[in-house]
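Re: [help] complex structure
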Amino acid sequence: MEESPSWEAWDSSGGWPAPRGARGGPSLSSILNGLPSAATLRYRGPGVLPWGALEEEEDGGSSTQTLIEAAQKELQEPHSSRELPWPMQARRAHRQRHARDQVAYGSGSRAARWAQLLQRSKEKTKEGLRTLQPWGWTLKKIGGQFGAGTESYFSLLRFLLLLNVLASVLTACMMLLPTWLEGAPPGPPGLGSSEPCGSYNPYQQGLVPFPTQLFNLFSGEGYLEWSPLFYGFYPARPRLAVTYLCSVFAGGLISLLLILRRSVSGLKQTLLAESGALTSYSHRVFSAWDFGLCGDVHVRLRQRIILYELQVELEEATVRRQAAVRTLGQHVRVWLVRVLVNLLVVALLGAAFYGIYWATGYTVELQGTSLVQQTPLLQLVVNYLPSIFISGVNFVLPPVFTLIAPLEGYTRSRQIVFILLRTVFLRLASLVVLLFSLWNQITCGGDAEAEECQTCGYNYEELPCWETRVGQEMYKLLLFDLLTSLAVMLLIQFPRKLLCGLCPGALGRLAGTQEFQVPDEVLGLIYSQTVVWVGSFFCPLLPLLNTAKFLLLFYLKKLTLFSICSPASRTFRASTVNFFFPLVLLLGLAVSAVPVLYSIFLIPPSKPCGPFRGQPSIWAQIPESISSLPQTTQNFLFFLGTQAFAVPLLLISSILMAYTVALANSYGRLVSELKRQIETEAQNKVFLAQRAVALSSTNGAL
Amino acid sequence: MGGSGSRLSKELLAEYQDLTFLTKQEILLQFAFLCPHSPPCWHQSTDPPWRWHCDLLPQVCGPHPANPFKERICRVFSTSPTRDSLSFEDFLDLLSVFSDTATPDIKSHYAFRIFDFDDDGTLNREDLSRLVNCLTGEGEDTRLSVSEMKQLVDNILEESDIDRDGTINLSEFQHVISRSPDFASSFKIVL
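Output below.
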């Protein structure tokens, strides 16, 4: 920080010098305190002592007069009374004067009065909407006790609940209602059908023992397979086919719009914060203290956290400075270690994905063995093998990532970003691998000429109704996710709290303090929502099940939080949660769109089941229905799909984007220019004030 | 006013709703909490108005004196000449500024006031050091070392002091705070 030489006269702290030298004439500080900007700053309204009033006794009436004049000038713009930083009685006086002025001005203020009424009704509706949101009080309490990061998790859970409720309502209106409007849907075609691809019997033969029926509930087979839960049940009626497709697209569009709306506010704040490195210290110090903290324990804990974080931040600065002066040899060593660590991570991920792929393929083989077919419990376990593998991988690998991250020699904040990215990739990619192996089974590896796929276009022997099979997999993933959450809570967290409360001393405290791990939990939520998005085409009632699951999860997590967890030792900033995680949610939506769109456009639908049986592809229904619309609508819709529409749209979007980027750049340059001007003006002001002091003291001496 | 049931009149309640960011329920809750018995504790026409000494106030979350900013908050919001007691309206002011719906402008204004320990209208090095000490705890083992403190204050001034005069004034403070996405959620008291 450069200081101009004329300021050497000030004391080393760099602030205003101590007030009031015992000479004739005003001192530098009293001149600077009398400036209009300082005066309006200290004004607190009529009849109230201004800020710092106790030191102003010497100047007396003249300074208060200037204060009042300066403040009146600033009040020319209409402020609502409550936004003035004055005490209550001053605001009251201001409001009364304002009301009197308005009455005095009569008709001219009618527009102002309408504007005021509009403003007030807008505020009332906003407040009304806010009270409509459920669990508002619970979220506030959680935020007060456990921090804003934890509150954001529950806020995200509430938002996803809303998404699922909307999706269920959409499903009910556009899929269930049309199904029963035109008469009850028929049963499965059974085994005796004459067509080559047409025989399909989901029901099991003969007398089914009770355990098998119970396990069928968990695996989606048996009586559940031909039920509104899965795709295969819906009859082949053209209008139902159109509404089925449209509901899927509408659901996706609504989710996209709502997520974008939610992430834009977080994005605005984070983009506004420029790059975090520029103001990280100021933010850490000024926004560090949570004024809602109550209780000795929490306050001391928060103080310890702040101390720790500040020390870590200062240390990181030294580390960065050291890193900048690394020799070539050290650089090479560090990068070698980083390459090795990344190779290790890739190897671990590859092994995990291969395991999932193998498990999905092996399931079919295992189901063929006689041992499995005789024991229904083993059948269930084999059915759940892919889910077990995915959950296991998601449980084991993230702690491994956390362990090896410090080896890379990055600063702590960057380490966390890397760990998060790797975990996100793991979660989403394991789902993708599962879907890939399913696709492999369905389409015989994409080879339409392979032996099993030749007659029907898909692997008819193993998967007579492949959409239902995909739906079943997603259903199993959902159930297993819920079971794991329950199991972790009941078998790990509660016992740990109970047992380690009895352990003596430091060991008990160390093992017993559990924290609510915000990033892990949020990624789990996003993963389940992605599963539901993929599955809602193949299993229409999945959003409804997910609503129930999230509702249960909300209360379970709340119970866990309040009875087991202590406030987090690392404050996970709410801003990160509000910006990063909606992006990951969007990524999940994009990832889930790919298999659904692929199935709609490229894989032939099953012949014995579903609303699209007999069509060459699922999408083929739409052009057929369009051709029944009037000619102009048809032309318009076909035009939307041509290149003559897409290319100009792309060009215009690129031009708009380039313009916005250029505008942002010019604003950035303007801001730095203005900052330089402010610096110069401050130097001018101090120079003039010093000259004034010098002149008045020589005048006084004469 | 006097012994018969202390209740806020409708006009006064509406006025408070108009002048603060609090909702009707919140005002009534505070009123019931602070003025349950007969004294006309809300009536400002009594001269001097009824005040609570800062140490006696439950500091909105129970009688815990651990909040390091308690004294500063009291001093900032007090309208008494000795700046050490709050009236009911001062208390409503406090809650209004710390509520959910207050504008970021007014929050940053009052935050500046609270952090300005010597009340001179700017945050100089001394103010910043005292602020950091409040944040980390006053004990010997919870302070930053002298060199760490100097480095931290240097960094803060480097980032926030636009006109390079060695202090942070209100506009610079508000400029920095406006880019901090966590400020609004941390400058909040939930009842």
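Residues 7-38+49-97 of chain B form a domain with the Recoverin; domain 1 fold (CATH 1.10.238.10).
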